[in-house]
Design brief:
TIM Barrel; eight-stranded parallel β-sheet; alpha/beta; 8 strands; 12 helices
Length: 345
């Protein structure tokens, strides 16, 4: 990548049909919506993509289909986490060969008790980094039982220079981000937060340069981040506080199902199904989510009601056509038409 990635980089959910088979067309349509929302990048096959319920063949099909769909218009991060360093390296090479701009990796772990000590975590990332030439984002997530204290993350970035990004989404994320940014400075050009951006302003105050939310309100979060990075902190705080009731409901009541419910409610996808044993939310929780979203009326609830620009064609020879048609449509929907750096594979 020509410049450090900043801004809003949502996780793309994996869309399933009612019979729980992967709906590649539906997943690609989510990508169309996200590009029209003005995001700065995309993340595939993360935990909010239900990567833990996919076969290797499904992972490959999703990554290939969506990278072709994006066709170099945005940087795409592919999550390649696995307990085995060999498997993670192979997944990362495959993602790179398909056109990924970056890979995101959690530290190795399995279940609640099979954890890895600090020196072995660094060796793990070294083995993966040696297999690729694109940047690595380390994911510090509550799902992992292998701890990543600040001291270990600092050593990791210093000893494995390809680790240039960190997604911090654990309790007290702001303090952790501040410690990392203070200690590493330009060695860590991409400090990000996650957790649906529920602590976004404190994390930006701490030095985060971007956020990796779900696909629920990325257009609106983009306005928050752009205002903050342009120096308008009061405007960013006000816009973020407007979103907080919906984001908090997602984070505490629904988890990854919230984005799917609203994508279906907005007519972007046909089914909000998750794969068993990951079941649906209760009817009352669903009603509460939709009520909040209807009141806020974010782009996810409106996007499918407008005539579509040419989109979805993953062939590189059509990328210029897509660029010319997407921006005017975004202006018509009241979304900022300012693009970040044009990225290409």
């Amino acid at each position: 990548m020509a410049a450090p990635l900043t801004g809003v980089v949502p996780v793309v959910p994996t869309i399933f049909r009612d019979d729980e088979t992967v709906d590649l067309d539906g997943t690609a349509r989510v990508v169309d919506y996200l590009i029209d929302a003005g995001v700065d990048g995309l993340c595939l096959l993360a935990n909010y993509s239900e990567q833990f319920s996919l076969t290797d063949a499904e992972r490959d099909a999703i990554a290939r289909t969506l990278l072709e769909r994006v066709a170099g218009r945005l940087p795409v991060i592919v999550t390649t986490s696995h307990y085995s360093a060999q498997v993670t390296a192979a997944r990362s090479r495959a993602a790179q060969d398909m056109g990924a701009a970056m890979v995101m990796i959690m530290p190795p772990f399995f279940g609640a008790t099979l954890t890895v000590p600090g020196p072995a975590v660094i060796d793990y990332f070294k083995q993966v980094a040696d297999a690729i030439h694109i940047p690595v984002m380390v994911q510090d997530a509550p799902l992992s039982s292998t701890p990543l204290p600040v001291s270990l993350l600092i050593d990791l970035v210093k000893q494995v220079p390809r680790v240039q990004y960190a997604k911090i989404e654990v309790p007290q994320a702001a303090d952790k981000l501040h410690s990392l940014v203070s200690a590493l400075s330009d060695s860590l050009p991409g400090p990000f937060d996650g957790e649906e951006s529920v602590t976004l302003i404190p994390d930006l105050d701490a030095g985060a340069r971007g956020t990796m939310p779900s696909s629920m309100v990325p257009a609106e979060l983009g306005q928050v981040v752009r205002r903050y990075l342009s120096g308008d902190r009061p405007g960013a705080v006000s816009a973020w506080e407007d979103l907080l009731p919906l984001i908090h409901f997602e984070n505490r009541q629904c988890g990854l199902r919230a984005q799917k419910i609203l994508l279906a409610e907005g007519g972007i996808i046909a089914s909000d199904r998750t794969r068993a044993p990951f079941g649906p939310v209760s009817p009352r929780t669903r009603r509460g989510l939709i009520e909040l979203a209807t009141r806020l009326n974010p782009l996810i609830m409106r996007w499918a009601r407008y005539p579509r620009p040419i989109s979805g064609c993953g062939r590189p020879d059509q990328a210029q056509v897509i660029r010319r048609t997407v921006a005017p449509a975004r202006m018509a929907w009241g979304i900022s038409a300012t693009w970040s750096t044009t990225w290409s594979r």
